[in-house]
Here is the input.
Amino acid sequence: MNHGSCIHFNGVRDASSTCGAGVNYHLTFGDQRPGLFLRMPCIMFYTKPAHRRGTYVKPGEPTVREEVNRRGETCMECAQRQEPTDEQVARDRVDSEAALARAVAGIRIASTWRAKPKPARDRAEVVVCPICNGKLHLSQSALNGHVHGRCETDGCISWME
Ligand code: SF4
Ligand SMILES: [Zn+2]
Here is the structure.
């Protein structure tokens, strides 16, 4: 979530995709011509750190705005377009940072707990969760060696390889 983008934008997967406000992207902006993204007002600008490449922004990091190059296409209007507030952007960055930290913790546990080569039988263990100190259930498949993890605490880490 960034300034300049609509809070309802959720990505375009196929022709039936609708945004969070129920607007079908292809029917509304497709116009049966190529260049759908250039006409969509959903991501009017993107925001990125002034000193780094990419679009990931850490909490509190300074940003710059750059207008999307529409290559001659005109941006269409949407009555339901709604930009996030400063507070929403700040909260989203904190949430994203926390989610990233949880994902990294999961990857670390999976790599240290994993038996190599893959075990002859499925294995499982309950360990202390590094995020919340709760109970983290780990299991490894004898079939492909993949490690799954799920913490008992609501909203904490869980992953499937
Ligand atoms: S600008 Fe309109 S179509 Fe695009 S995400 Fe927002 S509400 Fe949906
Ligand atoms: Zn946990």
Notes: Helices lie at 25-30, 36-39, 86-113. The beta strands are 45-49, 63-67, 123-128, 135-140, 147-151, 158-159. The radius of gyration is 21 Å.
